Amino acid sequence: MCESTFNGWNPIIQGCTLASYVMFVLKHEYIKQGEVGYVPEEGYGGGNNSVLALKYIQWLEKKNPGLKLKYKLRGGEHCIDANGRKYYLDAYNPETREIYEIYGCLYHGCSKCHPIGEKFSPVNKNRRMESLLAETLRREAELRAEGYTVHAKWECEIRKEMANDPEMHKFFKLCRYTHRLIPREALYGGRTQAFRSITQATTTSLLNYLDFTSLYPYLNAGGTAYPFGNPRIISAELPKPEDPLTYRGLVYCDVLPDPNAEIGFLPQKISQKLMFVLCRTCGESQNISRPCTHTKVSERYLTGVWCTDELNYAISKGYKVLRYHEIWHWDRWVAGGFFADYIKPLLKMKHESSGWPRPDMTDDEKDAYIKKIWDMDGVQLDPTKIKVNKALRSLAKLFLNSAWGKFAQNPDKVETKLIRLADAVGMTKFLNDPKYEPVNMIPFGTKKYFLSRRPKKEALLPGGFTNLAIAAQTTSAARLRLTQAMEKAGIENMIYCDTDSVIYKENVGENKLESMRGEQLGFLTDEIPAGRKLKEVVVMAPKMYALRMEDEQGASTYSVKAKGVSLTSKNSEAISFNTMKETMNDFISEGISEPLVAKMMTFKRGDNALDGLWTCVTDKRVNPKMDKGHYDIHGVVTPFGQLPTNTLLIDDYPFYDQ
């Protein structure tokens, strides 16, 4: 399959994993020069600054409304030549030639915090504290000698000032803008959310379970546009929050959700969960049983990095941008492109290996089917190759879904190397590289050692073809497609959603999602087998739900989905539709329930990365998890932060006009 489809490239030779092989093929066969830009893992921020220093610079601007400083977060650090040396400044006012320096006590040898100057610095063991202080004062003197006015502040002085100034303390506590745009923060993943715990079909309402066909391949093949080349970075002269957003790409900003919205439209990672909250404080506290009481903007606003398509959609739904921090704008966008060239042959293979829809089709029906696939997906099928081949179909699907994932690869991985004990120089270089932190040093026999190290955050480099903007745009467009389906179905009718599927109720005779149904890529198909109807749904947690279906004779069949649980015969008795329903009834009425317990064969290893593996049988406890919103006495989840209509908010947002 690989050699015939991908110009002879061998997966055994060219890639040790499916993802690496797919990226190899894309790189050598489909991606043209200049199409995929270089996106730094930590953004285009440049040098390091302390969080306290960045907050203090913003505080200075807050106290002096006319002050606009050039610093890391606005235009980048200014560089000055003084006495033959280059100095990067914490903040600079080009109109008045004023320099603002914030000295970290530990890094610059503060004499108040470190009075014993002969001591060596804990962050630089080759330098004494008095040497660091002398260098700091020399630098300051050289800047003054060039005619600049220098305002210097030690971090200990800032902390003392903050302790005596409640307004300053509040500002520092609320300030969340402490770094440049980091593209990985725009990579959120799919939306998985429970809306109702127990839902039954009635004589007037029915339940539907629909799934998008190959949602990610659909987006890759032309369902969304992707940025071409490198972005233009905008960190100064940003647009006004009230103006329409004319840029397209990634946006780092503060937004205020509509407190009356039926659902959240922008994702946030809170407590390692993906949530769609209307109030930041509610999401952080995760108090599911009490309604939101936060009416101050400072308690509610969100800070994050989002794709502009998703941000603009949220704005159209009542979200308000409070302040832009940084924007990455791409002038050119391409739909399809190299992704489409890669996907079309695989899509052809998938359709052909699926066989004919019916074994008794006439020649005219077969011709009509081939034309339909051409009209829907743009691939021309060969009738002589259309026959069922489940293995080939499975492979084609796997390759289709692996097209974009390598662009999101995380470089923050532990590197392990086996080194001979006699190679002392090699061991020293490996462990003392300033770009890495040592992790492990474990003997292997009597003459070798396993050494492990992890890259420091500031030294992270993306892989050869990592592009987080492409990955973020893929997941963002998928969430938008899912959101549109949820809104068409009606938020009040939603039961459950998971990345590319929706379970919802509607009245008999309605077909609210008719315009989004179809057999082509990116459209919804029914997940309930033909001849059966979905009668009841129980949702315990994201990726933990059970379905009851009935056939035409009224006989019930069940389907249970339980992430992290192997549904063996014994476990299926413990975690079944009936036990899940009983558990959720207890949880709704009492607010607590006994966990369902399954037996799991798992692998374990020690704390160190190189410890051995062993198998053991453990108990897997399954509990209700309705912690992505407010949970009421009827088993219905509403978004964190939803307030009654016409509730007035107190606008105490502290960062306007900065």
From TrEMBL:
Ranges of residues in domain DNA-directed DNA polymerase family B mitochondria/virus: 184-354, 388-437
- What is the enzyme's class at the highest EC level? transferase
Q: What is a GO molecular function of this protein?
A: DNA binding
**In the record, which residues are listed under signal peptide?**
none
Against Pfam families, the record matches this protein to: DNA_pol_B_2 (PF03175)
Gene Ontology biological process terms, A to Z? DNA replication
> What Enzyme Commission number(s) does the record list for this chain?
2.7.7.7
UniProt keyword Magnesium, yes or no: no
The reaction(s) annotated as catalysed by this protein in its Swiss-Prot or TrEMBL entry are: DNA(n) + a 2'-deoxyribonucleoside 5'-triphosphate = DNA(n+1) + diphosphate
UniProt keywords, alphabetically? DNA replication, DNA-binding, DNA-directed DNA polymerase, Nucleotidyltransferase, Transferase
Query: Which InterPro entries is this protein grouped with?
Result: DNA-dir_DNA_pol_B_mt/vir, DNA/RNA_pol_sf, DNA_pol_palm_dom_sf
What does the similarity note say?
A: Belongs to the DNA polymerase type-B family.
Its protein name is DNA-directed DNA polymerase
